[in-house]
Amino acid sequence: MKEKNIIFLYLNKYKWKYLLGIITLFIVDFMNLYIPQFTGEITDGLKDKTMDMNGVIQGIIKILLVGLVLAVGRFAWRYFIFGSARAIEYDLRNDMFAHLERLSMGYYNKNKTGDLMAHFTNDLNAIRMSAGPAVITSFDAIIMTLMVLTKMILYVNIRLTLLAVIPLIFIAIGGVYYGRSAEKRFAEKQKAFSDLTDQVQESISGIRVVKAFVQERQELKAFARANQENKDKNMKVVKLQATIMPLLDIVIGLSSLITLLYGGYLTITGTITLGRFIAFNQYINMLVWPMIAAGDSVTFFSQGTASIKRIQNIFRQQPEVYDEPDITDYKINHLEGEIEFNHLDFRFTAQTPEVLKGINLKADKGSTLAILGRTGSGKTAIANLLLRLYNAEPGMITIDGIDIHKIPLKVLRENIAYVPQDNFLFSDTLKNNIAFGASTKDIETVQKAARDACIHDNIMDFPGNYDTLVGERGVTLSGGQKQRSSIARALMKDAPILILDDSLSAVDTNTEEQILKNLKNNREGKTTIIIAHRISTIQNADKILVLEEGRMAEYGTHEELLNKQGIYSKMYEKQQLEKQLEAV
Predict the structure, then answer these.
(1) Torsions phi, psi for 157 (to 5 deg)
(2) Dihedral angle sign, alpha carbons of residues 82, 91, 105, 424
(3) Homologous superfamily of 424-494 in CATH?
(4) What is the pTM of this model?
(5) Cβ distance 361 to 552 under 8 Å?
(6) Measured between alpha carbons, how far is residue 478 from residues 161, 471, 473, 502, 533 in Å?
(7) One-letter-per-residue 3-state SS of 378-432
(8) Which of 4, 158, 249, 558 stands 20 to 30 A from 266 (CA)?
(9) Is 69 exposed, middle or buried (0-12, 13-18, 19+ CB in 10 A)?
């Protein structure tokens, strides 16, 4: 999308509704002009005794009819223009969320959640205001001003009109200055709100850590700083806005003073009638709204422009991982599970060191591959590359002999069940969390997956059983319960490839043994990759890869690696000793 045209793409979608709204607004403003005229005619008729009671009643009926047209017209332009602004906000929110879901992990690694949340609240609200109230106030100000001035010149007196509108020139001058300053201050205000939102989001998400380390006071200080910054930036906007109304009052006061002095003189000398003098004063009062609207329009447009630039920055981002039309083979719709790494090298960015170096191995369909290594050795990177959360170089990873880049992303990820390290659970029921992403959500299938993950008995102990709400990120569950719920979710998917990324670290050895036994019984003919620190978790795997600083340090079966007397053997001896000490 082009930098300056994003909002116009959405405005164009509803251009006919906007046009109808503006036409209706034109009719409303045009009819508005007749109320002062009818009032003036009634005044002159009564003063000159040329109008009887029937004439007065007819004048009142005219005013009432105009009022009825105004009521219908105002409903119509509000419906068309404000409704379109809400629709634009709705479309933009949908498109922005869809775009964010397409972006790769690299984008989320560099951007804060609080900042993204601010885009969906403050920024979209500012854009809606600029697409609704700002549009209506700006058009209303222009149409009403031109119509009122024309009526004042033709119906009352041209010299009086010209003198009365001289002060209005200062509003145009002030509007230019205000617009330039307002956009900058609104951008600063939105940034401060994003920082505040992020501070609150992080503090609440990490409340357990905050309390465990007794950091409430420090978090309160950090929040106070962010809150003060947000207040200061908002006060700058308030001060700027506060200068508008006094200036408008001065301008309107000057116009009213000129009207009373010179208009009164023209009335006394008989140049204009009393009725027209009264009508002129009403016309001057009708110019008050366009003057206020002009200031509001500048405010709305300035804030909207700042927010559009922030939203535009999101749409400018492009996913690093995507289906390339000239490479992707869309005929592929199923995978068997044979995985091969061919001289796999990987680094997250050009500036960071290599995470994986020269990985060469093959996992046959239906086999279990275990990956062992110290923290930071590159184990999780392999899982991320298989899911194409990040891109490896073409040809370095194949599944069923097919370059992973040729497999459509949707097909690839549908054929892989993944249990990540953080065991994320949604703020929903246990049933819905386990059935998340599964083709079927019937309770029998959910319960079977839960039994295989050894979480069913725990769930039945909860007051709501499978309808128990787990809270945000599964806060009401223990670490082991979250891990087993995540495993159940992966088993529900019943995919040809299963990846467990350190997913048994929080369960006891007996439970771990039972889960692994269930996996072996239920996943015959399907490929499983187990990433772990404990050798007890992976010792029965068909092949075990030991990573050391991103390299293949050792590779083989449990017995083969023990016989090598290398890294694996030392880790095994150390863990066996720890187990004996725990038993004592």
Answers:
(1) -160, 130
(2) positive
(3) P-loop containing nucleotide triphosphate hydrolases (3.40.50.300)
(4) 0.74
(5) yes
(6) 77, 12, 11, 16, 20
(7) CHHHHHHHHCCCCCCCCCCEEECCEEHHHCCHHHHHHCEEEECCCCCCCCCEHHH
(8) 249
(9) middle
3-state secondary structure 222-237: HHHHHHHHHHHHHHHH
Element (H, E) at 552: strand 551-556
Would you give the DSSP letter of residue 317? -
3-state secondary structure of 320: coil
pLDDT tens-digit map of 528-584: 999 988 888 888 889 999 988 889 888 988 898 888 888 888 888 887 787 777 666
What backbone phi and psi angles, to 5 degrees, belong to 424? -70, 130
Residue closest to 363 by CA, chosen among 403, 406, 410, 400: 400
- 6-316: in CATH 1.20.1560.10: yes
Name the token pair of 361.
């191995």
pLDDT digits (tens, 9 = 90+) for 301-333: 777 777 888 888 888 888 888 888 888 888 888
What's the mean pLDDT in 507-511? 81
507 in Cβ contact with 480 (< 8 Å): yes
d(CA 511, CA 536): 12
Topology given in CATH for the domain delimited by 326-415+496-584: Rossmann fold (3.40.50)
Residue 393 CA to residue 58 CA, distance in Å, equals 85
Please list, residue by residue across 136-167, b when 16 or more beta carbons sit within 10 angstroms of its beta carbon and e when fewer do: bbbbbbebbbebbbebbeebbbeebbebbbeb
CATH 1.20.1560.10 residue window(s) in the chain? 6-316
Strand, coil or helix: 528: strand
Q: What's the sign of the alpha-carbon dihedral 419, 422, 423, 426?
A: negative
| Cα separation, 544 vs 212, whole angstroms | 37
For the stretch 462-487, pLDDT in tens is: 888 888 888 777 777 777 888 888 88
Structure tokens at 76: 């119509």
Provide Rg for the chain, Cα atoms.
36
Start and end residues for every CATH 3.40.50.300 domain found in the chain: 326-415+496-584, 424-494
Terminal CA-CA length for the chain: 67
- 251 in Cβ contact with 171 (< 8 Å): yes
Select from 570, 565, 519 the least CA-distant residue to 542: 519
